[in-house]
Amino acid sequence: MKRYLSLICVAAALDLSGCQPPSTETKAPAATAASKPAPSPSTEAAKKEGGHEHSAPHGGALVELGEEFAHVEIVLDAATGKVTAYALDGEAEKSVRVKQSEIEIAVKNPAVTIKLGGVANALTGEAAGDTSEFSGQSDRLKGATDFNGVIQTISIKGKQFKDVAFNFPKGAEKE
Questions:
Q1: Whether 85 contacts 77, CB under 8 Å
Q2: 30: which residues sit within 8 A by CB, 6+ positions away?
Q3: Segments in the chain forming alpha helices (H)
Q4: What domains sit in the chain, N to C, each tagged with a CATH number?
Q5: Are 68 and 155 in contact, with CB atoms under 8 Å apart?
Q6: Strand, coil or helix: what is 6?
C-alpha cells in the first residue's frame, strides 16, 4: 500500500497537482459548445435578421396582435372541426385573460363564420367573459388542413384589434 501511495505521489508531483490519494468523487464534465443543443435554423435566421421567434405552446398557428403586443394561437382539430383560440402575451408564453364572452372568426374557403365561446377553467379560476381560452365547432372545418381566416374583434389588455387576418396553419407573425 505504501508503495502504491508513493507511486501516486511521484506521479502527482510530476503532474504538479499535489500529493493526495485519488478521489472517489466524480464531477460532471463542463458544458461545451458541442454538448449544447444546436438552435433551429429558423431561430438562427431570426437572430441574424435582428428579430426573434415564438413557438405556439399548443402546436397551433400564432397570430400576432400589434407589434408583439399579444398573440392569439389558433388550434384546429380537423377530425371534429373544433377550433380553439388561446390568448397569449407578446412572447406567446403566458395566457392572458380576455374580458369578452366570444371571439368570432370568419373563415374563407370553406366560407363559414364560427363563434368561439369563452371556456371556463376551474383550475385557473377562468370563466366565460374572463378567460384566455375560446372554442367552437363547425362541420365545414372537418378535414380542413389549410384555410384563411379573420379574427373579427378581440380586446386584449385594454387594446382592441379588428379584422386580423391569418392563415392556418401558418399563422400571422409579422417579420
A1: no
A2: none
A3: 2-15, 41-48
A4: 52-168 (2.60.40)
A5: no
A6: helix
Q: What is the pTM of this model?
A: 0.70
Residue 162 forms beta bridges with which residues? 153
Spatial contact of 116 and 83, defined as CB atoms under 8 Å apart: yes
Instruction: Report, as ranges of residue numbers, the positions in the chain whose pLDDT lies below 70.
Output: 1-52, 174-175
Beta bridge partners of 158: none
Q: How far apart, in whole angstroms, are the C-alpha atoms of residue 11 and residue 18?
A: 9
The pLDDT tens digits of the residues spanning 52-86 come to 578 899 999 999 999 999 999 999 999 999 999 99
H or E stretch covering 148: strand 147-156
Contact 64, 174 (CB under 8 A): yes
Q: Are 168 and 74 in contact (CB under 8 A)?
A: yes
29 cis-preceded (ω within 30 degrees of 0): no
Write phi, then psi, for 47 (nearest 5 degrees). -65, -40
For residue 121, the model assigns a pLDDT of 94
